Amino acid sequence: MIIGTGIDLVDVARFERSVTRTPRLLERLFTPAERQLKLRSLAARYAAKEALIKALGGSDGVYWSEIEITREPSGRPHYVLSGSTAAVVVERGIDALHLTMTHDAGLAAAYVVAERLTTEGEDAR
Where does Mg(2+) bind (predicted)? Predict the structure, then answer.
């Protein structure tokens, strides 16, 4: 069952201007591993974090630094959540987060689907 969906679009040039004006923004928004990436990839991760907040229905208990986007060996992006952000996802009954990201032509976008794989009283299989 789909619990929520979220989408976000980021203008990469505008994002770059923002982090140039406010360098500490990178520390507030991204984990140390993420900060090693190019700005267009960071813009896509910013979009992914915004899309997650939308899929969750709001930002209560969600912290940017507790959301990391990594890649599986196949290249598929996925969330690594910690702290109260991970707890919010569990509290909302979400078992799986499906994420896709892209950046092209000066734009970065992300789309997420938050899903419950089990129903009340049923184990995930």
Answer: 8, 50
User: Any known ligand binding at 8?
Assistant: yes
**Residue at 121 is within a domain:** no
Cα–Cα dist 44/8, whole Å = 9
Domain span including residue 97: 2-115
Q: How many domains does the chain have?
A: 1
This prediction has a pTM of 0.91
Q: Is 68 annotated among the ligand-binding residues?
A: no
* 79 in Cβ contact with 97 (< 8 Å): yes
- CATH number (domain holding residue 67): 3.90.470.20
Interatomic CA distance for residues 56 and 52, integer angstroms: 6
Mean pLDDT by 10 residues, the chain (125 residues): 97 96 95 95 97 95 96 95 97 96 96 89 53
Report yes or no on 104 lying in a domain.
yes
Neighbours of 121 (CB within 10 A): 5
